[in-house]
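3.2 Worked example (two chains)
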Amino acid sequence: MSKLKIPHNAFVFVGDGRKALFLRNEGDEKYPNLKTEQVFEDVNPLTHEQGSDRPGHISKAFDSSQRSAVEPVDWHQIEEHRFARKVAAAMEEVVRSRKVPALVVVAPPRTMADLRSAFHADIRERIIAEINKDLTKHPVGDIEKHLTAA
């Protein structure tokens, strides 16, 4: 991978299903200087903490003695998808209102898929790089180094 050049005032979206960072490059392509603009954090307990329903069962139509278990609802995963859509909408608002010239998106694969489907075409056109990694727990300096490493 060649060195990523992040233009001045470009935004870097770093997120997963629970946390999202909106970073802006105050520097230039040669010497980036990422600064935190916004942070979103979602409270998303584990599924077993969100509900107490036992998995359901379905009876076979012709023989009521046969029953099949139904996969339980993963409330935690549903909330992660919802959070990704929510922060994608917030990023779209920032990109449009501040006329952001370019966007870099950093997220683990499942969140990246949610973001791709959530971003409108005009926002997708401004994406200059997509990086499939979870860097949300890293300090901004480490994120900057990771993105600009040769």
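3.2.1 Second chain
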Amino acid sequence: MTDTHSVADPFAQGVQQLDRRAVLRSAEIVARIRDDQWDVPTPCGAWTLRRLLAHMTAQHLGFAAAADGGPVDEAVWRETPLEDPRRAYADSVSRVLDAFAADGVLDRAFVLPWIHPTMRFAAPRAIGFHLVDYVVHGWDVAASLGVPAAYDDDLVAAAAEVAAEEVPVGPSRERPGAAFGPPVEPAGPASAEDRLLASLGRDPRWSPK
């Protein structure tokens, strides 16, 4: 089964650069983690920072393999303990950005087994999924560290556009370990970032303390 849907132009043509900027910003945030902070809590349920980084790293490697085209070994997506999470994440960032920048990548179809075991997703759509992940997970890391995520407004707007169209509300958000939870109502005046986070089950005012 091949997905023929893709994010409408001009977004589709700019999604690689939007995603690249989001991923590089996430790498800047991750680089601020101190060695004594790996076990601090995150907004992602019971996940510690170490566990969140394992997830983020595995997702980069999985998306990179999908971008290369052809069959993808599901083991590529498997989260494994990381001896040096900061270095592993930096390496995975380089891997996925190189894969997404390859000639002809927007003409490929991605296999994303965590969404569907056989469906092939149009590249702009798949990269849009990735963009949402790294704006939101970058915020997760920043919130755990008590620092601003500071994503540019256009990245937040792009992630919100994709999330509204592509991240359905339903039972999949309620299962243990789901990356995105049921929507919540932000408290008080809400920024665009607050509305995005709340739509994906985050409390924008979450703090580890």
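3.3 Remarks
The helical segments are 11-30, 49-67, 85-100, 123-145, 153-166, 192-199.
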